[in-house]
Amino acid sequence: MSEVCLFNPYDPAFLADPYTTYRTLLNQAPLFKLPADFLQRSLSDTDWCLSRYEDVSLALRDRRFVREWENAKPAQAQAEAAANPHPTPPPMLQTYFAGMNSMMLFRDPPAHTRLRTLVNKAFTPIAIESLRPRITDLVEYLLQPLTSGSQVDLISEFALPLPVMVIAEMLGVAVADRDLFKSWSLRIARSIDATLSDPQVLQEAAEAYRDLSAYLKDVIADHRRHPREDILTNLIRAEEDGERLNEQELLSSCIILLVAGHETTTNLIGNGFWTLHRHPDARELWREQPEWSTSAVEEILRFEPPVQRTMRYVSDTVQMGDVLLSRGDSVYLLLAAANRDPAVFANPDVFDITRKPNRHLSFAAGIHFCLGAPLARLEGEIALTRLAQSSLVVDSDVPLWRNMTVLRGLEALQAHAE
Ligand code: HEM
């Protein structure tokens, strides 16, 4: 590819520092058209990158922007697809695509509304706040062995196990199997990272989906025989206007909770502690005045978002500034760029845990606004307040970012207790 592309998530420099790219886009091309075929897995002929807060926010809230290609596909593409059908993928990949496409994140109303309403019952702010004592205990349990003084990896020993233990307990799956969830979940998350079009990544995700499904089917069967007080039992029982979740939806709802429920929160904790390492004054303020906890977590979410972007398809013509978006176009919504838009955030590149207001888009907005946001915020607040107060210090100034560009997180973070 000879053309220089202002937005190039394949460039290793982007992984190290995506924010320079976002600043260039905001300044020079807030509605940026990607070169043709730049993203190999795109279904659209035209792909746009939106970085301005106002545009990203509009696309997240406006019903002309949809998640299902079927609801945006131009008539011509339908005719072409009918004339030249794609080769049928192998059965395992078909099952994987069907499972992923039945997740609420990838559905439009009315299916989205039904799925979200049923799952949402377990995620009300009151239900989540009741988990505070348990999460605090888990934080102490995981931190205790890390304070001996020897070097530890905070990601594998703390930031990864905490969210997976919480969501496993909430769902009612065995916490002891958390290493299995971790590897299945990571492989599925990698396939969602749109920049990775490697067939091997897709194959591994499909295998992980198959194995996780087989595991969960047994757990679901056991919950049907022996109902208990957890989300899975509630989902099995859940009825909204007489409609239950079918088996496929039940399975994919559990899978999205397991995957979304820990890859992202792990990154919130890891990115958060890394950012505090880079800004010792902020850590000091947080340690001395823990009343800043809530706003500090919001600032970490704005400054180093665990989910850097999402996407939508355009289902109807939209005039955006000078640009006319057409049915069938896709738009990449750079949440992390919008969080640095100087039109909304004063000194956007400054990390300020006292920032108010802080209407970042790290949990998106509109109908797909992160369902797990209250849980992520609670886990982030408890874990990071405790880490800020601890004697743990980071041992390296060179971060090791995971090779993913939708989810941004550290592969490892070596630290020791002083
Ligand atoms: C949706 C971010 C934690 C479950 C989303 C979306 C974002 C996001 C940006 C919307 C994507 C879009 O509109 O295309 C995050 C971040 C988290 C986090 C940054 C942690 C810091 C969680 C947790 C759970 C969760 C802990 C559940 C246990 C979900 C679900 C959706 C979602 C189910 C789909 C909602 C829908 O389609 O209506 N998340 N998330 N997330 N998140 Fe989270």
Automatic annotation (TrEMBL):
Transmembrane parts of this sequence: none
Keyword Heme: yes
Keywords, in A-Z order: Heme, Iron, Metal-binding, Monooxygenase, Oxidoreductase
Domain of life: Bacteria
Entries under InterPro entries matching the protein: Cyt_P450, Cyt_P450_B, Cyt_P450_sf
One Pfam family linked to the record: p450
Gene3D superfamilies assigned: Cytochrome P450 (1.10.630.10)
The family this protein is said to belong to: Belongs to the cytochrome P450 family.
The protein's name in its UniProt record: Cytochrome P450
Species, as recorded: Alicyclobacillus fodiniaquatilis
